[in-house]
Amino acid sequence: MEEEDAGADPYLPYDGGGDTIPLQEIPKKRGSNYVMSNGGGAPSSTTHLLDFLEEPIPGVGTYDDFHTIDWVREKCKDRERHRKINSKKKDSAWEFTKSLYDAWSGWLVVTLTGLASGALAGLIDIAADWMNDLKEGVCLSAMWLNREQCCWTSNETTFAERDKCPQWKSWAELILGQAEGPGSYIMNYFMYTYWALSFATLAVCLVKVFAPYACGSGIPEIKTILSGFIIRGYLGKWTLLIKTVTLVLAVASGLSLGKEGPLVHVACCCGNIFSYLFPKYSKNEAKKREVLSAASAAGVSVAFGAPIGGVLFSLEEVSYYFPLKTLWRSFFAALVAAFVLRSINPFGNSRLVLFYVEYHTPWYLFELIPFILLGVFGGLWGAFFIRANIAWCRRRKSTRFGKYPVLEVILVTAVTAVFAFPNPYTRQNTSELIKELFTDCGPLESSQLCQYRSQMNGSKAFNDNPNRPAGPGVYAAIWQLCLALVFKIIMTIFTFGLKVPSGLFIPSMAIGAIAGRIVGIAVEQLAYYHHDWFLFKEWCEVGADCITPGLYAMVGAAACLGGVTRMTVSLVVIVFELTGGLEYIVPLMAAVMTSKWVGDAFGRQGIYEAHIRLNGYPFLDAKEEFTHVTLAREVMRPRRSDPPLAVLTQDDLTVEELQSTINETSYNGFPVIVSKESQRLVGFALRRDITIAIENARRKQEGIMLNSRVYFTQHAPTLPADSPRPLKLRSILDMSPFTVTDHTPMEIVVDIFRKLGLRQCLVTHNGNVLGIITKKNILEHLEELKQNTEPLAASWYYHKKRYPASHGSNGRPRSRVHHVQLIGSFQDGRGGDDSEEEVHLLDGSNL
């Protein structure tokens, strides 16, 4: 009977003992129908391939929290939905209208996302600037104005003290009635620390109580979500609300963090919320991730005022699946968000960015040497920061200190405020510091960095001799910048990872800008005092405008940010959009590539990939190369010491046996085979779909009992007359699961998982099921290989026991089981798919 069935269905796996698969005669007429055997000896019939005519089971095809989506199934669902809409659009005007709505829903959702992202970014910028100035004083004429806005309308400001006016009062003036003296300094010191602690404490309490997911940067989790992982609530409305409020508080507290990374999280929350208004995206997780990719581009667009850089950031850094249509919609979302931000004009300078600069001199060829040295510094800083921050975060997770996030935030904020206030370069807002470091010295600049000595007792015009000897103010500023550099390096390591919204872009750029400005001043003074050196002789004439220290600050900022994140193309575009320095792309490219090469020499992972690895998220990095020689049979489960692979037969299980298997295991799915005697693969059934289908059948169908027969075939098997009604589960069966042979190189298997977004892949030999490889198995295998080469590699955490190592103590692969041992009546059943979703995820108190 089995031979007749196999002959009747050329698509069933061959049940033979040899390696040769006999060719079957394929029917000439092919279409949406084909001949399918029921596997139980009943006559075959013509059926639709996926039983689309059957009523769909509610809940089937959805995913639990902390599970990975099936990209292939989601794309198939979307194609079927699209075909259905196109087939009906000519039936009536209403169906045609529905088809138009479906076609334009993608553009509509990214438009709404861009509008919301731009509005929220403008609100955050304005509120953060006001609250940051609130630490130093208040505007008496209008409480809602910051210091700069308060003095705009004043006629009593001076050139040297343009940020001071009678309307703006420091806390010492309000409380003590005096603006100068030791008492006023102590009072301003106290109020600065008080407001910083108040803002930070309120932020961490709001995060802990209302939205634990609102902490951190959000980019590592967004990268994981875009790769197909489900984290319920991470992009929800509560997270959006709390993240928006606490981001303002965290930035205003003066901590060494930025708002750019969290703004990407805020934009993705907007995209996720608006996607639920459109069934095309709310019911398809893969399509929803296209909206999230566009939202991340909008987030960077409003964070830096760089719409093109935002699109490239989404493509290079965060997106896992980025088709051409998503590229267009990302560009449009970034455009809309930038337009809204420009309309709000949060910086009051009629520009999208705060760091816009205009340099009046070109760069010269010999300057590539200090630019490359800045790139080396950026790479070394990035490698050091990643290792130090990951070590501290790992210690936080493994010690009792991590159980008190509020206390940690208070301590870090107190240390930051106490040490930041005495230094004017650490006291001011980090964005304002970067702006001052980027700005070139001119006649309208009163910064201490521009206090050069005049050669003619002040009678010579400022711009007649741009390269002048540095005065006492410049040397004092350099010492303060050196102290600020050390302070920023130390505090950024301990700040990134706190339980408040914390971005890394601005602190990294500040560190690079400080180092770059110091190098720029040094090169400037070297060119002044040694203009006859061969390096300067050709380009730097006496009195010529030769060196621009602000340019070095810009290059250093890009180098340090590139060393931390390992971005290249998108980073260069973001920086020249951020500053308007289009002429200086070549120095930026040289520094960024140098920082990446130097950083990669110490470890190829950027800070976001390192945190993904630390948190144990199931993320397969497409940038990571797999160079080891292993085969699929060496990685598949089960192994020799593991229980046998749990499988389901296609037509001889009862509901009770199936439920017993599900209740006694916690696995993601089970291979379905022909029978206990034949191990030929029929398909793959997911645990969640089986559970939902059984519950739905008991509610809607009469006669379903514990001893009812369960079958995955087209027709019911032959049963006695007194048997209860059988349960058909064919509609939930994946009849085309991805399979590889046991001799397939793991390099190919890893590429398949990356490019197709698979959850699991079955391993077969001559059509017989041998085992299964899940995403978790691949991650474990990659981690085992890294443990042998990277001493600081992060450990993986699982709720369940770890599988044994794939290699023995002698360095050779362990032997594998080359057959499937069936589990009789499934009383001792164990699942065949120890799914990748069993990674250890931290709870709300220490996420």
TrEMBL record:
<feature type="transmembrane region" description="Helical">
    <location>
        <begin position="194"/>
        <end position="214"/>
    </location>
</feature>
<dbReference type="InterPro" id="IPR001807">
    <property type="entry name" value="ClC"/>
</dbReference>
<keyword id="KW-0967">Endosome</keyword>
<feature type="transmembrane region" description="Helical">
    <location>
        <begin position="234"/>
        <end position="255"/>
    </location>
</feature>
<keyword id="KW-0812">Transmembrane</keyword>
<feature type="transmembrane region" description="Helical">
    <location>
        <begin position="406"/>
        <end position="425"/>
    </location>
</feature>
<dbReference type="InterPro" id="IPR002245">
    <property type="entry name" value="ClC3"/>
</dbReference>
<feature type="domain" description="CBS">
    <location>
        <begin position="733"/>
        <end position="790"/>
    </location>
</feature>
<dbReference type="GO" id="GO:0005765">
    <property type="term" value="C:lysosomal membrane"/>
</dbReference>
<feature type="transmembrane region" description="Helical">
    <location>
        <begin position="104"/>
        <end position="124"/>
    </location>
</feature>
<dbReference type="InterPro" id="IPR014743">
    <property type="entry name" value="Cl-channel_core"/>
</dbReference>
<comment type="function">
    <text>Strongly outwardly rectifying, electrogenic H(+)/Cl(-)exchanger which mediates the exchange of chloride ions against protons. The CLC channel family contains both chloride channels and proton-coupled anion transporters that exchange chloride or another anion for protons. The presence of conserved gating glutamate residues is typical for family members that function as antiporters.</text>
</comment>
<keyword id="KW-0129">CBS domain</keyword>
<keyword id="KW-1133">Transmembrane helix</keyword>
<dbReference type="InterPro" id="IPR000644">
    <property type="entry name" value="CBS_dom"/>
</dbReference>
<feature type="transmembrane region" description="Helical">
    <location>
        <begin position="291"/>
        <end position="315"/>
    </location>
</feature>
<dbReference type="InterPro" id="IPR046342">
    <property type="entry name" value="CBS_dom_sf"/>
</dbReference>
<feature type="transmembrane region" description="Helical">
    <location>
        <begin position="551"/>
        <end position="576"/>
    </location>
</feature>
<dbReference type="GO" id="GO:0005886">
    <property type="term" value="C:plasma membrane"/>
</dbReference>
<dbReference type="GO" id="GO:0005794">
    <property type="term" value="C:Golgi apparatus"/>
</dbReference>
<keyword id="KW-0547">Nucleotide-binding</keyword>
<protein>
    <recommendedName>
        <fullName>Chloride channel protein</fullName>
    </recommendedName>
</protein>
<feature type="transmembrane region" description="Helical">
    <location>
        <begin position="262"/>
        <end position="279"/>
    </location>
</feature>
<dbReference type="GO" id="GO:0031902">
    <property type="term" value="C:late endosome membrane"/>
</dbReference>
<dbReference type="GO" id="GO:0031901">
    <property type="term" value="C:early endosome membrane"/>
</dbReference>
<dbReference type="GO" id="GO:0005247">
    <property type="term" value="F:voltage-gated chloride channel activity"/>
</dbReference>
<keyword id="KW-0458">Lysosome</keyword>
<feature type="region of interest" description="Disordered">
    <location>
        <begin position="825"/>
        <end position="847"/>
    </location>
</feature>
<feature type="transmembrane region" description="Helical">
    <location>
        <begin position="477"/>
        <end position="498"/>
    </location>
</feature>
<dbReference type="GO" id="GO:0008021">
    <property type="term" value="C:synaptic vesicle"/>
</dbReference>
<keyword id="KW-0677">Repeat</keyword>
<dbReference type="Pfam" id="PF00654">
    <property type="entry name" value="Voltage_CLC"/>
</dbReference>
<dbReference type="Pfam" id="PF00571">
    <property type="entry name" value="CBS"/>
</dbReference>
<keyword id="KW-0868">Chloride</keyword>
<dbReference type="GO" id="GO:0005524">
    <property type="term" value="F:ATP binding"/>
</dbReference>
<feature type="transmembrane region" description="Helical">
    <location>
        <begin position="364"/>
        <end position="386"/>
    </location>
</feature>
<keyword id="KW-0472">Membrane</keyword>
<keyword id="KW-0406">Ion transport</keyword>
<keyword id="KW-1003">Cell membrane</keyword>
<dbReference type="GO" id="GO:0062158">
    <property type="term" value="F:chloride:proton antiporter activity"/>
</dbReference>
<feature type="domain" description="CBS">
    <location>
        <begin position="636"/>
        <end position="702"/>
    </location>
</feature>
<keyword id="KW-0325">Glycoprotein</keyword>
